[in-house]
Amino acid sequence: MLEQLTNRDYRRIAICVLISIISLLFVQKYFTEVFPDASINMDVTKDEAHIIAEKFLANRGHDVEGYMHAHRFGWLDDAKEFLEFELPADSAGSILNNTNSYYWRNRWFVPQQKEEFWVKISTTGHLAEFDHRIDEDAPGDSLGEENALYIAKFFLVGSIGIDINDWELVESKIEKQKNRWDHEFEWKEKSFNIHEGTHRITVKVQGSSVDYYNEWIKVPDTWKRKYEKIRSKNDLLSSIGGTVLQLKLLLIFLMIF
């Protein structure tokens, strides 16, 4: 025979439903604060990023037919930790999206060959990093700093589409290879300053060609040292907790035995 529900059973069911509704509302309100990764703007899929990266290389005159391809999802670790530590989750997520800190990494390579192509396309569909790796002894031009800087700026304005007036050149250096000169330039965005953290771009001209571009956030060294101390304390507490847990499990096993 079927047993009828009593008033007590109905009250228990009502309480469970009420707790479920409250839990759902709580999760909806605080989910992105507990899990900041939920704020990622996934405007571009893995396959779409692959196509964008191939088109970028083709526009640069690089043919990757015959190369092996690999890809994965990634992000800027230091920038993510720094911004999520210093800012509210929604603000940190917005900045990470706008600075192309989440990306799909594409790599084209041939086993045992020095030349490789790395192209990171952000989840918002923009170029986050480009790295054309060639042999140190590969031939190329030996340009002066002024000519190399002009090539780097032309790339930033023409290929990336930035307003060079919004950026300040903070570092330039030259590396004289055996058969060419390589120039590296670094800019920082003038209007970006979050607790001494700065928004940077790096361009490297190998010979007379832009073969490296990277957009990144420079985290202050003082913050890194502070964060390492915090992490070391957390690791110590985690080790103590793990040891106590193992002892408790051993004690439970002995009691059962």
What does the model show?
With 257 residues, this protein is of the alpha+beta class. It contains 6 helices and 8 strands, in the order H-H-E-H-H-E-E-E-H-E-E-E-E-H. The chain has an 8-stranded antiparallel sheet.
Shape: elongated
With strands numbered from the N-terminus, the spatial order across the biggest sheet is: 1-2-3-4-8-7-6-5
Average of pLDDT: 92
Q: What percent of the residues sit in helical stretches (DSSP H or I)? A: 40-55%
Key phrases:
eight-stranded antiparallel β-sheet; 6 helices; single chain; 257 residues; alpha+beta
Please summarize what this structure is.
By secondary structure, the chain is of the alpha+beta class. Helices cover 44% and strands 26% of the residues. The protein has an eight-stranded antiparallel sheet with strand order 1-2-3-4-8-7-6-5.
Strands, helices and their partners?
Elements: H1 7-34, H2 46-59, E1 68-75, H3 77-86, H4 89-98, E2 102-109, E3 116-122, E4 127-133, H5 145-160, E5 167-176, E6 181-189, E7 198-206, E8 209-218, H6 221-256
Antiparallel strand pairs: 1-2, 2-3, 3-4, 4-8, 5-6, 6-7, 7-8
